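PROTEIN SPECIFICATION:
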Amino acid sequence: MTEPAGDKPALAEFGDDFSSVLCVVAHPDDIEYGTAAAVAKWTAAGKAVTYFLLTRGEAGIDTMHPDEAAGVREQEERDGASIVGVSEVDFGTHRDGNVEYGLALRRDIAREIRRRKPDVVVTGHYGDRFAQGMLNQADHRAVGLACVDAVADAGNRWIFPELVEEGFEPWNVKRLCFGGSPTATHFVDVSEHVGQAVASLEAHQAYNAALPDDFPKPAELINMILGWGGQAAGVEKAMAFDVVQRG
């Protein structure tokens, strides 16, 4: 892993001009790798935050059959979410490790956007590498890219007219944000919420226990990620996002 270059332009503050956030990711624990710190700050400020995970993470534990792992990881996600103030966590029906970009994925995300009506949608970077050069995973890439298109789909009644028939009227998202992007533009100062973020990741006990022995522990990993963001933002700890303003 390499640290971000010191000559990157300063990041702008994320701001407070929104009321609701929908986090859309592929797996349980994806939100906990840094974004949960921002979520903790937002919920403490009275923002409504909900989670939508396209899979239940059933393929994530080598020593546990997917049928068992799905329930375990779903509960771990709910436990982790509650630590940062999120009580509404929903799951899709896509298969962990086999998420495919396409109309079905876009439709599912667009439906959830219309249902939740968020001002802000947060997802993950969909490029082949994260900001620190680590390779991105296939499900992450599919969900991130589909989220780009689903945000537009959610505002157009004619792309998925069946959603209107289901009772979901179009909804226009004001801000789309990507975590883990090498082209971050904004930051959330989370210096006072690091402990919650660590605890939120620690809630994934079965998943963490199955990771290789040399994989960083939650406290080390969270402080590393948020330290990179803080360095880029000029604060102690920060979560950095690539933000697209849409209105």
Summary: The mean pLDDT is 95.
